[in-house]
Specification:
Oligomer: single chain
CATH architecture: 2-Layer Sandwich
Number of domains: 1
CATH topology: Alpha-D-Glucose-1,6-Bisphosphate, Chain A, domain 4
CATH superfamily: START domain
CATH class: Alpha Beta
Number of strands: 7
Largest sheet: 7 strands, antiparallel
Strand content: 35-45%
Mean pLDDT: 85
Order of helices and strands: HEHHEEEEEEHH
Helix content: 25-40%
Structural class: alpha+beta
Strand order of the largest sheet: 1-7-6-5-4-3-2
Low-confidence stretches: 1-5
C-alpha cells in the first residue's frame, strides 16, 4: 500500500465508540452522512455474550454474512481488513482500518446500570466506495439479555458511487440484515 492509501479518509474518526455507549435517541450523527443504528436481541446469558463477542472480534460476523475477509486474527486498533462484496473473483474490495476496539468489559449504560460490552469500529480507507465508519458491538444487559448493535455512518466516496447511491442503500440494508442473522447464528445454541 502506498503512503496515500494508508490513511483513514473521512471526518469524525472514532465517532461510533461513544455512540456505542449511548441509547439510539441520544446519538448525534454528522450532517451529510446516512446512518444505521440497529439493535437485535440474539440470546441470553454469559455463554451467548461470549460467543457473540468472540465472533465479532475474530471477523466471524463478516464471514457468516457472506463476505470474503482478509484480516489479522483479531480486531485491534490499527488492524487492516479488506472484505469483498460480490461473487467468486468478481468482488469489490472494501478496505478498512480498526479505529477502536474493546475487549469484554463492564461499562455504565443508561440509568447507570452496568452492561457488558465488546466490539470494535472500523473506518474506510481510500478505495472504499464509502466514507465513514461501522461498529459491531456485543452487549449483555443487567437482566442477561444479549444484544447485537450495528452502528454506521457513511456517504459515497465519489461521484460514481454517489450516482449509485440508491443501489448502495439497498446493498447496505441487505448487509445489515446479514450481520443481524450472523449474530443470531453465533449465539444460536444459547
Amino acid at each position: 500500500m502506498s503512503p496515500k492509501d494508508s490513511r483513514l479518509d473521512y471526518p469524525y474518526l472514532g465517532l461510533t465508540r461513544p455512540a456505542a455507549l449511548k441509547p439510539p435517541a441520544a446519538v448525534v450523527w454528522p450532517k451529510g452522512f446516512g446512518h444505521v443504528d440497529k439493535t437485535t436481541s440474539v440470546g441470553n446469558g454469559q455463554a451467548a455474550f461470549d460467543a457473540l463477542a468472540e465472533g465479532i472480534m475474530t471477523w466471524e460476523i463478516q464471514r457468516r454474512s457472506g463476505l470474503a475477509v482478509k484480516a489479522p486474527a483479531r480486531a485491534a486498533v490499527g488492524a487492516r481488513i479488506t472484505s469483498g462484496f460480490g461473487v467468486g473473483s468478481l468482488r469489490l474490495p472494501v478496505p478498512c482500518e480498526v479505529v477502536w476496539a474493546m475487549e469484554s468489559q463492564l461499562v455504565d449504560g443508561p440509568d447507570n446500570a452496568q452492561i457488558q460490552l465488546a466490539g470494535f469500529g472500523y473506518g474506510t480507507l481510500p478505495g472504499h466506495p464509502a466514507l465513514g465508519e461501522e461498529a459491531f458491538i456485543a452487549m449483555m444487559l443487567p437482566d442477561g439479555a444479549v444484544q447485537f448493535r450495528l452502528l454506521a455512518f457513511s456517504k459515497p466516496s465519489g461521484l460514481i458511487y454517489a450516482l449509485g447511491a440508491p443501489v448502495t442503500r439497498l446493498t447496505q440494508a441487505g448487509v445489515t440484515r446479514s450481520y443481524q442473522q450472523a449474530a443470531r447464528t453465533l449465539t444460536g445454541g444459547f
